[in-house]
Write a structure and sequence with these properties.
The complex is a heterodimer of chains A (about 375) and B (about 300).
Chain A: H1 2-10, H2 19-54, H3 59-70, H4 74-98, H5 107-121, H6 130-159, H7 163-183, H8 217-234, H9 236-246, H10 248-253, H11 258-285, H12 296-306, H13 314-326, H14 328-335, H15 341-356, H16 368-378
Helix pairs in contact in A: 2-15, 2-16, 3-13, 3-14, 4-8, 4-11, 4-12, 4-13, 5-6, 5-7, 5-11, 5-12, 6-7, 6-11, 8-9, 9-11, 12-13, 12-15
Chain B: H1 9-37, H2 45-63, H3 66-89, H4 95-114, E1 127-129, H5 137-142, E2 144-146, H6 147-165, H7 167-177, H8 179-184, H9 189-213, H10 227-237, H11 242-264, H12 271-275, H13 277-289
Antiparallel strand pairs in B: 1-2
Classes of the chains: A mainly alpha (about 375), B mainly alpha (about 300).
Subcellular location (chain B): Cell membrane
InterPro entries (chain B): ABC_transp_permease (IPR001851)
GO cellular component, one term (chain B): plasma membrane
Chain lengths: ~375, ~300
């Protein structure tokens, strides 16, 4: 802010900056958006290394295991991508409402309900052709998630209920309802040790993506991220949402339908999270059971914040965290560390990232005005 | 020799359960009241609660004294509060997001450090048998009141009084209602808020000590299921009034005790649904007491939540 006012005072006669200056200024802004989160991640890793050293464990060994467990071989990469797929959807459930200034953290419940809805519609349709059944399953999941998280948005828009707390409560309620149904009315009587719903049927299962060996959730997730980016950055709707997220009163004065925007964006986020559940059922598990609530909803929060709610940044971040979680088992076995090691690291990264928010605009080297004035001085 | 009380067992178990289950809600909500009265919201108290539970249990196992455990939990809570307070004092940092991060960090760290303490058993906190006058074991069980519950009850009265009648209480309220006014009076807004967040962390940590050292009375990774977050919602419902927090905590405790109470008389279907009762109650109360158009009555003016 200080740089802004200083620069505007110097530039008395406004001149149209040359193309080169514009490119430099654009580059400076973009570099800042990448450099600060990366710097925060490095600081987080450094702190975690100190933590490991204090426990007498080697940070280098951990890095090596994460590389081997998550990225080094085709098999490891497949495993990481498989874990990244639900994270893409879970992160969108955070990033889309975030455009409106809402912090929604209830994706876990929407994933569970989406998976359950998908698993429930399949058995009655067993006579129908497979594409129809899969379509119906996806639709059921989308609806369940949209209604559940959309309700959080509606409570915010029409009753003023805080979306963060409401979404987490809704998530607990969703998981309770889903567990009740899975162990009660909807239980497959033959599932003895692990209560599950009736299987969706092998014919209705989604195969792997050709050449990758990873289920279609990954492709759909990347596509969803691209579509979300288009919606946010290239449509009037996304622009309206950004205005409403920045200043509700200004948006209302402009006549923007703030309430409908809130309900729409939260419903869309919920639908995305529910798709993660759909793919877990239709491509991995084959039925709905308690393991649908595997924590993807919570890791998704971290993914969205690391990506700074930019949908195009979500896939690489999701891959990184998917790889980190894929290597968890290896870290436990080889280093005799508890399974919560990854949780500690993730929490630390999250904290460092938020502290990093304060660094934006602090470094002169990233200021577009610096580059503009340098060029002008040279000219 | 237990007499058959029939359906009376359920309300009796709910009352006893309300006293037993409400204590963590009470401590966390009192802590959050202090923090929010100073104008900050700390959603990380769920993490502080879990870490406090772990720290108390581990300390009690090692030293053999449950009260040392309570002290350790309070100290750990102060640390987490200080961290939250300091990070949120940086410009442009969102206190809600920091709370979520600290919640995940606190839970992760508690699971990490608490792994070796899942097996050993710790000495529990003492309880006072107020049900000595009755022959009925159910009544005796319901009226066994833990010392921390009494401490919490006294604390809510003391805080209510302090917010009205002491200088410290007034300073916290001024900082929470108008940072400008506090600055004009010469108080450091940042320092007051950091201290208020620390005080909130101490209480939340002690709430965690109750979980692991009395009820349910063991350390495991499922020890808290959102009590810390529900307590934050409870503060809104209680309108930032410590006395109302006490009543609200009892209500939430009763809702939480409904599931086990019904199970004890043989109602076993819908197990998960009864356990969801506190969440439904919290959400219902939030919906009923929120308003889309105006700030909530009694809300601190600087609180992001009510803006």
């Amino acid at each position: 802010m200080v740089a802004d006012t200083a620069a505007s005072r110097i530039a008395v006669v406004p001149r149209r900056p040359s193309a080169a200056v514009q490119v430099m200024a654009w580059l400076a802004r973009r570099t800042e958006a990448v450099a600060i989160p990366l710097g925060a991640v490095l600081v987080g890793l450094a702190l975690f290394s100190l933590f490991l050293l204090a426990l007498g464990k080697s940070p280098a060994a951990l890095v090596d295991l994460v590389w081997r467990g998550g990225f080094s071989s085709a098999f490891a990469l497949q495993n990481s991508l498989q874990r990244a797929a639900p994270l893409l959807f879970a992160a969108l459930c955070v990033a889309l409402p975030a455009r409106l200034g809402l912090v929604v953290i209830g994706g876990e419940g929407a994933i569970m309900l989406g998976g359950l809805a998908a698993a429930v519609v399949a058995p009655p349709l067993s006579a129908a052709p497979a594409p129809l059944v899969v379509g119906a399953m996806a639709l059921a999941a989308l609806l369940a998630g949209a209604v559940w998280i959309g309700a959080v948005g509606a409570l915010k828009a029409y009753r003023g209920v805080d979306a963060t707390i409401a979404s987490l409560l809704m998530s607990y309620i969703a998981i309770a309802i889903a567990n009740h149904l899975i162990e009660g009315p909807l239980r497959d009587p033959t599932s003895l040790n692990k209560p599950s719903t009736l299987p969706v049927g092998d014919a209705n299962m989604l195969g792997p993506m050709p050449g990758l060996g990873v289920h279609w959730g990954l492709g759909a997730g990347v596509l969803a991220c691209c579509l979300a980016w288009l919606l946010m950055e290239r449509t009037t709707l996304g622009f309206s949402a950004r205005i409403a997220g920045g200043n509700v009163r200004a948006a209302q004065i402009q006549g923007l339908p703030v309430r409908r925007l809130i309900v729409g964006f939260t419903a869309l986020g919920g639908a995305c999270a529910a798709l993660a559940g759909f793919f877990e059922v239709a491509a991995v598990q084959g039925n709905a059971n308690a393991t649908l609530a595997a924590g993807y909803g919570f890791t998704g929060i971290l993914v969205a914040f690391l990506a700074r709610h930019n949908p195009l940044a979500i896939p690489p971040v999701a891959l990184a965290l998917g790889g980190l979680e894929a290597s968890s088992g290896l870290i436990q076995r080889r280093m005799q560390l508890p399974d919560a090691t990854i949780l500690v690291l993730e929490g630390l990264l999250f904290l460092c990232l938020l502290v990093g928010e304060t660094a934006y605009g602090r470094f002169k080297i990233f200021s577009p005005h610096l580059w503009a004035s340098k060029k002008e001085a040279a000219a | 020799m237990s007499q058959d009380l029939g359906l009376w067992t359920v309300p009796l178990a709910v009352i006893g359960g309300a006293i037993r289950v409400s204590t963590p809600f009470l401590f966390v909500s009192l802590g959050e009241t202090i923090t929010e009265r100073a104008g900050r919201i700390n959603l990380g108290l769920e993490g502080t609660l879990v870490f406090g539970a772990m720290a108390a249990y581990a300390t009690a196992v090692v030293t053999g004294s449950p009260w040392a455990g309570v002290a350790a939990a309070g100290a750990a809570g102060a640390g987490f509060g200080l961290l939250h307070g300091l990070i949120c004092s940086l410009p442009r940092v969102n206190d809600v997001a920091v709370g979520i991060a600290l919640m995940l960090f606190g839970i992760g760290l508690a699971f990490f450090l608490g792994k070796p303490f899942i097996q050993p058993s710790a000495p529990p906190l003492p309880a006072i048998p107020f049900g000595f006058w009755s022959d009925l074991p159910q009544v005796q069980a319901a009226l066994r009141v833990n010392v921390l519950f009494l401490v919490g009850a006294a604390l809510s009265v003391a805080l209510w009084w302090a917010f009205r009648h002491t200088k410290a209480g007034l300073v916290v309220r001024v900082v929470g209602d108008s940072a400008e006014a506090a600055r004009a009076m010469g108080y450091s807004v940042t320092r007051v808020r950091v201290l208020a967040t620390m005080a909130g962390g101490v209480l939340a940590g002690i709430g965690g000590a109750y979980l692991s050292l009395y009820y349910p009375g063991s350390w495991n990774e499922g020890i808290s299921s959102g009590q810390g977050l529900m307590a934050v919602a409870l503060v809104i419902f209680a309108r930032w009034n410590p006395l109302a927090c006490f009543g609200a905590a009892l209500l939430f405790g009763g809702a939480g005790a409904l599931g086990p109470a019904l199970q004890s008389v043989g109602v076993s279907s819908g197990y998960y649904l009864f356990y969801a009762a506190p969440y439904v109650l919290t959400l219902g109360l939030l919906v009923a007491t929120s308003s889309p158009d105006r700030a909530l009555a009694g809300a601190p003016g600087e609180l992001g939540l009510s803006r």
